[in-house]
Amino acid sequence: MNIILLGPPGAGKGTQAQRLVEAHGMRQLSTGDMLRAAVKAGTPVGLQAKAVMERGELVSDEIVSALIGEELDAMGPGTGAIFDGYPRTAAQAASLDAILGARGRTLDHVIELDVDEDALVERICGRYTCANCGKGYHDKFEQPRIPGVCDKCGSTEFKRRPDDNEETVRTRMAEYRAKTAPILPIYEERGIVSRVNGMADIDHVTAAIEKILKD
Ligand code: ADP
Ligand code: ADP
Ligand code: ZN
């Protein structure tokens, strides 16, 4: 199974992708995570992407589509893919079709997380992750069971993203509205889009997604 999680920054794509990975052994392909790894490693891609990401603008279609192709090639053919934060433009949607087709994969579901924009700034400004395993948390909405200790790996180190500030979030939302939301009709025509209420609490969103995957 290959699915896309679509929604603006802070909609809950990464949170839900991590749960699907745990429950089904699928693989999360997050272009944001790949780009942050490239920035950290100081690769040519990272050097190019860093300032763009800090501004909250989109990195070039060529770069992100190449990253996705490489990640898919590193996966077993039987492992399902969860695309998180990709595609974000019509050009990326077209590339994804080609990338999947070349590997004998098909797209089964596009799950749109429907959220109020007003909630997103609060979600993003309270977001942090485990510095060791990457599990996502939120100051208010998803705290570790033991304060300061990661539920998944026991690490006591956490980090926040430099682009998770109100100003950048506004730019990222505008980019989503202008370039990403318009790709939905491509998938609607194929009859593979399902809409989930992303304002429900995290467990409810997971249950709604699981229901779609079972149908
Ligand atoms: P995205 O990957 O779409 O940018 P995340 O999954 O990182 O979004 O979620 C953004 C923040 O909001 C995280 O801190 C996460 O813990 C929190 N969050 C995710 N889903 C929900 C939800 N349904 N209700 C409340 N907070 C949520
Ligand atoms: P969020 O889901 O919170 O918006 P991501 O981690 O998906 O954040 O993306 C962080 C940043 O990385 C984006 O603001 C953008 O600069 C870049 N990026 C990630 N994925 C893509 C993509 N598919 N196309 C272009 N830029 C991307
Ligand atoms: Zn951890």
Task: Give structural notes.
With 215 residues, the protein is α/β, with parallel strands linked by helices. The chain is built from nine helices and eight strands. The chain has helices spanning 13-24, 31-41, 44-55, 61-73, 90-102, 117-125, 166-180, 184-189, 202-214; strands at residues 2-6, 27-30, 81-84, 109-114, 127-130, 136-138, 158-159, 193-197. The strands form two sheets. Strands 2-3-1-4-8 form a five-stranded parallel beta sheet, sandwiched between helices. Strands 6-5-7 form a three-stranded antiparallel beta sheet. Strand 5 and strand 6 form a beta hairpin. Helix 1 packs across helix 9. The structure holds adenosine-5'-diphosphate (2 copies) and zinc ion. The site of one adenosine-5'-diphosphate (ADP) has 20 residues, from helix 1, strand 6 and helix 9. The site of one adenosine-5'-diphosphate has 20 residues, from helix 1, strand 6 and helix 9.
Overview in brief:
Helix content is 48%, strand content 15%.
Tags for this model:
215 residues; 3-stranded antiparallel sheet; binds zinc ion; 5-stranded parallel sheet; alpha/beta; single chain; globular; binds adenosine-5'-diphosphate
Oligomer classification: single chain
> What summary fits the major beta sheet?
5 strands, parallel
Contiguous low-pLDDT stretches (5 residues minimum) are none
The rounded Rg comes to 16 Å
Name the ligand types: adenosine-5'-diphosphate, zinc ion
Number of distinct helices: 9
Span of the ends, CA to CA:
12 Å
Return the structural class: alpha/beta
